Input
Amino acid sequence: MEEKLILEKVRVGDATAFALLYDRYWLKVYNFAQLYITSSSEVSEVVQDVFVKVWESRDTFDETKNFDGFLFIITRNIIFNYSRRYFNELNFRMTALKGFENSYDMEAELDAADLKNYIDRLITQLPPQRQRIFRMSREQHLTNKEIAEQCAVTEKAIERQITLALKFIKDNLPLFIVFMG
Output
């Protein structure tokens, strides 16, 4: 069936057409997500979330426009959110470890301090502009818009730099875990 016809049917809620759309694009989304997420279960979650989002926003897309572009934007945003969630979860764990100061064991505190130091060292390995943007985001708690204004670039460029920084940190954390384990 022609893509335009499938999209028209999906837009009006045809589940069979949606299944065809899924069959046609799921592997493309999966392969793209694998470039940024290493866990196959998380990649599968991304694919699922992408197609849930496609279904939820089916009445907003225009079947005369490029569906690949629409799908790419949704996929990119979901991957970015996963990366942000991963970093926030890591940050939360570090904060939680620091919160046990009164009843801590020395080993746990050393591990948390070592992890923070390791992440700080990783950040220094980023290209200077990416490092600056990442620090503005995480240490100064500036919004992407504020950072974009200060750096005279677009918010999308800021999002990309933060995503690349998070990917670099995530890709290099397993080395720390192996070393400390």
In short: The helical segments are 3-11, 15-34, 40-56, 67-99, 106-124, 128-138, 144-151, 155-180. The chain has two domains: 3-80, 100-180. The chain is about 80% helix and 0% strand. The first helix runs from residue 3 to 11.
